[in-house]
Write a structure and sequence with these properties.
Layout lengths: L1 H27 L7 H12 L4 E4 L6 H11 L4 E5 L6 H5 E7 L6 E7 L6 E5 L6 H13 L1 E4 L2 E4 L5 E6 L12 H4 L4 E4 L5 H11 L13 H13 L4 H12 L10 H6 E3 L3 H17 L7 H12 L4 E2 L1 H5 L4 H11 L2
Parallel strand pairs: 1-8, 1-9, 2-5, 5-8
Antiparallel strand pairs: 3-4, 6-7, 10-11
Helix pairs in contact: 2-11, 9-11, 9-12, 11-12, 12-14
């Protein structure tokens, strides 16, 4: 009886989330023109407890988009501009010596860094040293920070969006494949259309000031994240996701010839997990209680784009990871 009641409550939450999703997109639309696919991918990643790597040229309002999402969801936002001289303690926090006025003794006090927020924008993460990158990536994975032997839990929800500039690569420290794998999605922010750009210019060069409303709060987001984990998935959908990821590996028994020719390393099991989590979240946002194969297919590009390592043959044939994923989706039914 209790289980049945909980299921009915979950279905009510699903219907409410569908309405909330439409309101969130509408509120963000007051500030951000277009980019609906990017907004959906950010929301899916947040609700699935994942993190995003955002690729896009400068000037596409990536920072504005993320700060707007934080406002609409009533979350604490923190922006870290990565530079070559940034140290791990600049992110996580540092210990300071202070005088205790009552005893006259000196003591250490931990001052929390910008990573202690709900939404972190790690701007140009490839501009800083591997040591500093590792400090953020550890916080992403463990949701905690260790300093001077003490462990400090990060406040939930905790969501990291790291940006990379695809144009200028001089003096950068590209993230290794093992660290790229920690990001649920690789989100590509493209140029707006001519009509969208006209709207952007009109709104940003006028006195227009958007009045943003809060749609969801922290506690509601955490409940929704828990709900995603309870969403049932049929075996055939899981099998499709596992088979799709398996076919990206050159040594997989049924991998197509072009995978063997073009790919050095395929995606690992984390890709299968994120395909299912993304499919679950997409179905819930659309008011459906369980995902289908089409939901998995819709998640394939953002989940797999940064997990496939192409070789010289692919570069010689002028083939990128997105073309390979699309070709694979056409072959895998």
């Amino acid at each position: 009886m209790a289980a049945r009641k909980k299921t009915e409550n979950d279905l009510d939450i699903v219907n409410q989330l569908k309405e909330s999703h439409a309101k969130i997109v509408k509120e963000i639309g007051k500030v951000i023109i277009g980019q609906n696919k990017v907004i959906d991918e950010l929301l899916i990643s947040l609700l699935a407890r994942g993190h995003c790597l955002i690729i896009g040229v400068p000037g596409l309002a990536k920072t504005l988009l993320i700060s707007t999402v934080a406002q609409v969801l009533d979350l604490k936002f923190s922006r870290i501009q990565f530079t070559p001289d940034l140290m791990p303690s600049d992110i996580t926090g540092t210990e300071l010596i202070e005088d205790d006025l009552t005893t006259g003794r000196k003591s250490f006090k931990f001052v929390k860094g910008p990573v202690f927020a709900n939404i972190i924008l790690a701007d140009e993460i490839n501009r800083t040293s591997p040591k500093t990158q590792a400090a953020l990536l550890q916080a992403m994975q463990e949701h905690e920070v260790t300093a001077a032997g003490e462990t400090y839990k990060l406040e939930e929800p905790f969501f990291v969006l790291a940006t990379q500039n695809p144009i200028e690569q001089e003096g950068t420290y590209p993230l290794p494949e093992a660290q790229l794998d920690r990001f649920m999605f690789n989100v590509w922010v493209d140029y707006p259309s001519s009509e969208e750009e006209s709207q952007i210019v009109k709104s940003t060069t006028s006195a227009y000031q958007p009045d943003l409303k809060v749609i969801l709060k922290k506690d509601e987001i955490i409940k929704l994240q828990d709900l995603i984990r309870r969403v049932p998935v049929s075996d055939n959908v899981v099998d499709f996701a596992v088979n799709l990821v398996g076919k990206t590996r050159p040594d997989y028994k049924s991998a197509p010839k072009y995978i063997k020719d073009w790919i050095s390393w395929g995606a690992g099991p984390r890709a299968s997990q994120y395909l299912i989590l993304g499919a679950k979240t997409k179905s819930i946002l659309e008011g459906r209680s369980t995902p289908d194969i089409d939901d998995v297919r819709a998640m394939a590009i953002p989940v797999l784009r940064h997990r496939l390592v192409i070789n010289f043959n692919a570069e010689a044939d002028n083939v990128g990871t997105v073309e390979i994923i699309e070709k694979l989706l056409d072959d895998v039914k």
